[in-house]
Task: inverse folding
């Protein structure tokens, strides 16, 4: 029974897009020239998989990042430029993975989403960012993929 469960997990993860499996909010932020200057950081995340319809799969991954900034750095932080940079880097990463973008848009809560797909799966990434206090900025990413079966 354990071997069967292990094989199912391996098969499910093998169906993830390379964009999904390689995604890291920390690495994404490192690519951004407009990222905030943080003097303290915290973050976390998780991932869950479940069987989909007709033997397919559904995957969900989430990550968060909290940045504490000094007052001068917080005043200089350009959130719009940062979000634009994140979006451009995500679009490049999706294209580099062999998937293509199907749509997306800006969200009301200070973020954006991008829908993407390949022959075997459909996915979506949601990025939200917000200032939560004096010099605190929180960034969250949620990725979801499902098979087209």
Result:
């Amino acid at each position: 029974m354990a071997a069967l469960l292990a094989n199912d997990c391996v098969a499910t993860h093998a169906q993830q897009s390379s964009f999904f499996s390689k995604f890291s909010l920390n690495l994404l932020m490192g690519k951004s020239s407009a990222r905030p200057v943080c003097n303290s950081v915290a973050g976390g995340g998780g991932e869950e998989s479940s069987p989909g319809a007709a033997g397919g799969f559904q995957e969900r991954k989430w990550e968060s990042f909290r940045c504490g900034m000094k007052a001068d750095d917080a005043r200089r932080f350009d959130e719009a430029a940062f979000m634009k940079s994140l979006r451009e880097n995500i679009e490049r990463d999706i294209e580099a993975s062999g998937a293509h973008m199907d749509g997306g848009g800006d969200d009301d809560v200070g973020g954006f989403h991008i829908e993407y797909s390949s022959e075997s799966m459909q996915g979506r990434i949601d990025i939200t960012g917000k200032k939560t206090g004096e010099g605190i900025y929180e960034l969250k990413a949620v990725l979801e993929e499902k098979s087209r079966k």
In short: The first strand starts at residue 40 and ends at 51. The chain has one domain: 2-147. The CA atoms of residues 116 and 139 lie 21 Å apart. Confidence is low (pLDDT under 50) at residues 1-14.
